[in-house]
Design a protein that fits this description.
about 350 residues; mainly alpha; 2 domains; two-stranded antiparallel ribbon; 11 helices; binds protoporphyrin IX containing FE
Length: about 350
């Protein structure tokens, strides 16, 4: 009987789902040829969505540093003893690899989450109208740094956690954080020529602060390279340096950065600088104090893993704030159409130009 056939009743069921868009063969070909252009032609994200996507990429770049730290500090660096597969016979971790395998493999999987966040940032930036090439390029720059660090991470495993490669892996992550921070900032401002908010001398002082911070972070990775947290329970060669001496050099550099930050705050106050550089500098100063305190406590308490992990997180936050201080020294309103009045787009209210700002 025709009416009792269950398959027929399925076919006759009224359509309750949303209408499937008509995708023609030409559409499908265009999507395959250039998926980003295809999406951009059909979707315009809210500027807030673009900002959130950029922030998500930045947050994920910090998360991956902390989880990478967990790999090292739990001695799971060779939990997956080879790369790109986990073991010679398995792509994923196996029960014989135990908890170390789960931790190391889990960190490898997080790379995909990071890639998804960066991918979202690229797609959102590419689809924004009007199109901002510089923003999209910053997204792509992150993608290539992630690819580079994934390969470097593989090399770290293949060379048995050689400390120089571990240090380079951390430094490349800091480079990723730098690009992600710049992209996040650029999503919150326009494309007009940057207008300095402070004078040349203050800008030079901040560049000096940036350089000292880079050196501080680099020497930090050398302290780690000469220290006991090699990343695996077995014998891993360390950098042939006296740990006490490099730690002291690292602490001296931390003091230099703290002093420069304090001096900067003082100078910004003296020249009656706008609120945003002053606020960022004050925040950086507090972050540095917290980070320095963690550094000293871990130094005097035989490097407990939790504190070392926190110190790695602190280094990421401090680096982001150093860059935020640098980026707060100028403002970039939206580009004006010829004859149109200026309209500030930055999320933070446009700051009054400093007395010290050159015209
Ligand atoms: C205040 C700013 C500071 C920053 C931004 C900073 C940053 C860093 C960085 C990036 C590392 C390397 C992390 C890694 O390779 O996994 C590190 C390691 C280290 N830092 Fe600092 N640091 C600061 C202050 C200090 C201070 C004042 C001390 C006190 C001595 C200190 C003690 C250490 C020690 C002992 C390590 C090695 C930890 C390990 O074995 O993994 N840090 N730091």
């Amino acid at each position: 009987m025709a009416g009792t056939d269950p398959r027929e009743s399925v076919h006759k069921r009224p359509h309750t789902m949303g209408r499937v868009p008509n995708v023609t063969r030409a559409d499908a070909q265009a999507a395959l040829r250039n998926p980003l252009a295809f999406i951009a032609a059909r979707w315009t994200p809210d500027p807030r969505t673009v900002r959130r996507a950029a922030l998500a990429a930045l947050v994920m770049s910090v998360v991956i540093v902390v989880t990478g730290g967990a790999v090292r500090l739990t001695g799971s660096g060779l939990g997956c003893p080879t790369w790109p597969k986990c073991t010679d016979d398995s792509l994923t971790t196996t029960s014989e690899m135990g908890l170390h395998g789960v931790i190391e493999f889990g960190n490898r999987l997080l790379t995909y989450v990071l890639c998804a966040a960066v991918g979202w940032a690229i797609i959102a930036a590419r689809s924004q109208k009007p199109y901002r090439r510089s923003l999209t390029l910053l997204g792509w720059a992150q993608f290539w740094v992630v690819m580079g660090n994934a390969i470097l991470g593989g090399i770290v495993v293949l060379v048995g956690l050689n400390p120089y490669t571990v240090a380079a892996h951390f430094l490349l992550s800091s480079a990723l954080i730098a690009v992600a921070t710049v992209m996040w900032q650029r999503t919150r401002e326009g494309d007009a020529e940057p207008r300095p908010l402070v004078g040349k001398a203050v800008q030079q002082l901040v560049w000096f602060l940036v350089a000292a911070s880079v050196l501080l972070i680099a020497v930090g990775t050398v302290v780690t390279g000469a220290g006991p947290h090699a990343g695996d329970s077995s014998e891993v060669p360390r950098m042939p340096l006296d740990w006490e001496t490099v730690s002291k050099l690292h602490a001296v550099l931390a003091w230099i950065v703290v002093t420069l930050t304090f001096a900067l705050w003082f100078v910004l106050k003296a020249v009656d600088a706008p609120a945003s550089p002053l606020d960022r500098t004050r925040e950086l100063f507090l972050i540095l104090l917290a980070q320095g305190a963690i550094g000293y406590v871990q130094y005097f308490t035989d490097l407990p893993e939790v504190l070392v992990g926190l110190h790695m997180f602190g280094s990421c936050v401090m680096w982001i704030w150093v860059l935020r201080v640098l980026l707060s020294l100028r403002e970039r309103p939206e580009e004006m159409a010829p004859g149109a009045a200026a309209a500030p787009v930055a999320q933070e209210p446009a700051t009054s130009a400093s007395i010290a700002a050159p015209r």
